[in-house]
Write a structure and sequence with these properties.
The complex is a heterodimer of chains A (523) and B (306).
Chain A lengths: L12 E10 L2 E11 L4 E5 L6 H8 L7 E6 L2 E3 L4 H7 L1 E4 L11 H7 L7 H14 L15 H13 L5 E5 L7 H16 L3 E6 L2 H7 L2 E6 L2 E6 L6 H9 L17 E10 L9 E9 L3 E5 L6 H9 L10 E3 L2 E2 L5 H6 L2 E4 L14 H9 L4 H4 E2 L5 E2 L1 H15 L15 H13 L5 E5 L7 H16 L3 E5 L3 H7 L2 E6 L2 E2 L3 E2 L5 H8 L6 H8 L1
Parallel strand pairs in A: 3-8, 3-9, 6-7, 7-8, 13-20, 13-21, 16-19, 19-20
Antiparallel strand pairs in A: 1-2, 1-4, 4-5, 9-10, 11-12, 11-14, 14-15, 17-18, 21-22, 21-23
Helix pairs in contact in A: 3-4, 8-17, 11-13, 13-14, 14-15
Chain B lengths: L2 H28 L7 H19 L2 H25 L4 H20 L13 E2 L9 H5 L1 E2 L1 H19 L1 H11 L1 H6 L4 H27 L11 H11 L4 H23 L6 H21 L1 H7 L13
Antiparallel strand pairs in B: 1-2
Helix pairs in contact in B: 1-6, 1-9, 1-10, 1-11, 2-3, 2-4, 2-9, 2-10, 3-4, 3-9, 6-7, 6-11, 10-11, 10-12, 11-12
The chains are: A alpha/beta (523), B mainly alpha (306).
GO molecular function, one term (chain B): transmembrane transporter activity
Subcellular location (chain B): Cell membrane
Keywords (chain B): Cell membrane, Membrane, Transmembrane, Transmembrane helix
Chain lengths: 523, 306
């Protein structure tokens, strides 16, 4: 009665032309997927490919716009996570919902039905954690645990519901390699028991290592279904990032200027247990160049931005130079005064104060670099509101920021419009050096192209632009040079026209160093 | 009765209202609600307990009236901060000012009237133990209740499922909501428990400590109770110890005067707050202590997504 899966049997879970629209944007477009009992099924794709949207629909967090979900051949509706759990679907989220002040056993007990005593929960959790090789101390406080241990709690919590299908969303993105190896052993045990696993990842190596089948998503559509063991990393990468090798647009001018931004052997130890250490990062950006840094989230992008912008200065002054002057030990304001501009990743609360109007956000960012223009009264520093408003209006007009009213609170703007304003705020100064982290993250297509155009134009005017991005389309649109960051190490920068998506995909997947051989092998 | 015994008895009487009021606040804060209205709820409990005792002639009915009054008064705070999502700090301060005002109004006819004291109940056999007997087992019902509550709450918070939910809400109301725990309902109950305890503490003041009504008779004990919760790092056992320490310090002003020891009384009355500051510094020094002991969502309003 139900569709027959690739390996012949009746699938545990089947998805038929499942679609999710956000407005007119199709996050998932007619997705078909079969998961057989007892298989580890990989869901591969770049950021924004629709993986998370798909699993959120499977776990009852989002409602599909159209299409069908079949559980053991029967059409089902999954209105809530509770309903998904009752069917036999468990999920381990990428960001955990744990109570830090409570113990492991208490955290687990809270998600179980009432009537089970705490000591019983501790016993059961302890038993399960040993059975699946997930060592956990039920009495430990979550606040004291590593990310890997926290993930184990989530897994044990899911296992206590005895699920037939376990969905893991990017489970290794927060794990050390040793922790990841442990997780793979656990997954093998689950598979041996006949449970199915839906494994979401963009790391090709581990997908090839542990998964039986793979479904590849790109731009909300299924672009391939395969046995990852029969594929090469290159062929998987091609499916993931698209077989069409981009027609590269060299954005900058051909005349290369001086080196305006440079990092020399920049090493920064990890500030928190969850941060990535930067290891011997070297980069140079000349005037007229756009250097794009590609990489999978959490490989040191945030840390690199912090070190380059001066949000966290480094002791070695020479590790970062701006316009030829050592700036490593200087803070953000000092670096701004040297002619640099910065756009951090998070719009709300980092690049802008959501509750304050746009004009105040403008003063907050530029009160030192534009002191003479924006402030009056010498040491008193009285804000010249009229001047600031004119500047704010100029930025809005240049960047086509659509807003309600003349000077609304930053938080009331849509993500795309606020991002245009924030980027425009820096561009308005005509900085010699601009460093942008994820310039178009979560921004609609129109705003994204406006922002990218502005970055390219700035480089054409002779500035050095450094863009950190996870979006390969974006990188190929704006970059003249491309480097890839992986586990805190930065690859050499290649001219954009010399790189293919395949090669970047391999570098991103942590296959740094093996690239040449692997790619050659694939052809 | 020896002098030491007499002094210890006054310490117990001084510590009991502090322990009670702060126990209530501890539960409220464990659920993530900061209620700065303890002083107001306490003084309301005191005046109602006194008035009802005068009307009925029974201090026991007076005690019940004090409890009910504190709980009802805190319900006002709950409605404003939980349902209408008003700022907890401002609302708590307003509650204190309101309580001090209304109690003065209600209590006006009772000023100078001699009260009816809640009589001690001697526990058979145990009260005959030399020294300890008269101290611990020839006390009034409110003292026994205060000790029972410390035991009970320690069990409730750290052993029972309901208590676990209270702590979970205080740690992260968003996660608790996602798990299907009723955040607002639980917070209402916690706030009302806090009010009831403050009302009982007030009843102790006007029926045991000084069995009469004096305007503003809570005399800053509500603020000491608030400091005590932090001092105890939100744990009932430490709170009991801290309550007796603070009680001893506050009563020592009188004894020091009587014995002619020249310590400025202002210094002694400031001691509980100094001790609290020291404890806060010690806690905040250690990130782990802070994470595990402080309710992370304390004072933050919760508005569920619809």
């Amino acid at each position: 009665m139900s569709a027959v899966g690739a390996s012949g049997g009746s699938p545990l879970l089947a998805v038929r032309s499942l679609t999710k629209l956000f407005g007119s944007f199709a996050a998932c477009n007619a997705i078909d997927l079969d998961i057989q009992p007892g298989e580890i099924h990989a869901l591969l794709g770049e950021n924004g490919a629709g993986k998370s949207t798909l699993v959120k629909m499977l776990f009852g967090v989002l409602a599909p716009t159209s299409g069908q979900i079949l559980w053991k051949g029967e059409p089902v509706r999954i209105p809530s996570p509770g309903a998904a759990r009752r069917l036999g679907i468990g999920m381990v989220f990428q960001h955990f919902s744990l109570f830090e002040a409570l113990t492991v056993a208490e955290n687990i007990a809270l998600s179980l039905s009432p009537g089970i005593s705490l000591s019983k929960v501790a016993e059961e959790a302890s038993r399960l954690s040993h059975l699946y090789g997930l060592p956990l101390d039920p009495k430990a406080h979550v606040a004291d645990l590593s990310v890997g241990e926290r993930q184990r709690i989530e897994i044990v919590r899911a296992l206590l519901q005895n699920p037939e299908l376990i969905i893991l969303d990017e489970p290794t993105s927060v794990l050390t390699p040793q922790e990841a190896d442990r997780l793979f052993e656990t997954l093998a045990k689950l598979k041996a028991e006949g449970r199915s696993v839906l494994y979401i990842s963009h790391r090709l190596e581990e997908v090839q290592r542990i998964c039986d089948r793979a479904t590849v998503l790109r731009h909300g559509k299924v672009t391939g279904a395969c046995d990852p063991r029969q594929e090469t990393p290159a062929s998987l990468a091609r499916m993931m990032v698209g077989s069409d090798v981009a027609s590269v647009s060299a954005a900058g001018t051909n005349t290369k200027g001086d080196v305006l931004l440079e990092a020399r052997h920049l090493s920064v130890p990890a500030r928190t247990p969850f941060a990535v250490a930067l290891k011997n990062v070297c980069l140079k950006v000349r005037g007229g160049e756009v250097l794009a840094i590609a990489g999978v989230a959490g490989n040191g992008q945030g840390e690199l931005f912090d070190a380059l912008s001066g949000e966290y200065p480094v002791p070695d002054a020479g590790a970062v130079s701006i316009r030829g002057k050592a700036a490593g030990n200087l803070g953000i304001t000092a670096r701004r005064l040297m002619g640099a501009g910065f756009v951090p990743e998070e719009r709300h609360g980092h690049a802008a104060v959501p509750a304050l109007p746009l004009s105040d956000n403008l003063v907050l960012a530029r009160n030192q670099s534009d002191r003479k223009t924006f402030l009056a009264g010498g040491v008193l520093g009285v804000i010249r509101h009229a001047v600031v408003r004119i500047a704010s209006k100029r930025i809005s007009e240049t960047m086509d920021v659509r807003k309600s009213g003349e000077n609304p609170a930053a938080g009331s703007l849509s993500g795309g419009n606020l991002q245009k304003y924030i980027v425009g705020r820096e561009l308005d100064r005509q900085p010699a050096v601009l460093i942008v982290n994820q310039p178009t993250w979560g921004v609609d297509a129109g705003a994204a192209s406006r922002i990218r155009q502005a970055l390219v134009d700035l480089a054409k005017a002779g500035s050095a632009v450094l863009v950190i991005s996870q979006d390969l389309d974006e990188i190929f649109e704006v970059a003249t040079e491309i480097a890839v960051i992986s586990e805190g190490r930065l690859s050499d920068a290649y001219p954009a026209h010399e790189l293919t998506r395949e090669k970047i995909g391999l570098l991103m997947g942590g296959m740094y160093g093996k690239t040449e051989g692997e790619v050659a092998h694939a052809h | 009765m020896g002098i030491i015994e007499a002094i210890l008895l006054t310490v117990i009487t001084a510590a009991t209202p502090l322990v009670l009021a702060s126990l209530g606040e501890l539960v409220s804060e464990r659920a993530g609600v900061l209620n700065l209205g303890v002083e107001g709820m306490m003084v309301m409990g005191a005046v109602l307990a006194f008035a009802v005792t005068q009307a009925t002639g029974s201090p026991y009915i007076g005690v019940l009236a004090g409890i009910a009054c504190g709980a009802l008064f805190s319900l006002l705070f709950g409605f404003l901060t939980l349902t209408l999502v008003a700022n907890q700090v401002a609302t708590g301060l307003a509650l204190t000012i309101l309580g001090l005002g209304i109690s003065g109004q209600i209590g006006e006819p009772y000023v100078g009237m001699s009260g009816i004291k809640l009589q001690p109940i001697a526990v058979p056999l145990l009260s005959d133990i030399p020294f300890l007997g008269p101290l611990l087992f020839r006390q009034d019902i409110i003292f026994y209740l205060s000790i029972a509550l410390v035991f009970g709450l320690n069990w409730f918070l750290f052993r029972s499922r309901a208590g676990l939910k209270v702590r979970a809400i205080g740690d992260s109301h968003a996660s608790a909501h996602a798990l299907g725990i009723h955040v607002i309902r639980t917070r209402y109950l916690a706030v009302m428990f806090g009010g009831a305890c403050a009302g009982l503490a007030g009843a102790q003041l006007s029926l045991v400590y000084t069995p009469q009504w004096v305007e503003n008779m809570s005399a800053g004990r509500g603020w000491i109770a608030l400091a005590l919760v932090v001092f105890a790092s939100w744990r009932p056992w430490r709170l009991l110890a801290g309550g007796y320490l603070f009680g001893a310090v506050s009563i020592s002003q009188l004894h020091a005067q009587a014995l002619g020891i020249g310590i400025p009384s202002q210094f002694l009355s400031a001691l509980p707050y100094i001790a609290t500051v020291v404890v806060l510094i010690l806690i905040s020094h250690n990130r782990r202590m802070t994470l595990i002991n402080t309710p992370a969502s304390l004072g933050k309003p919760f508005v569920p997504d619809r």
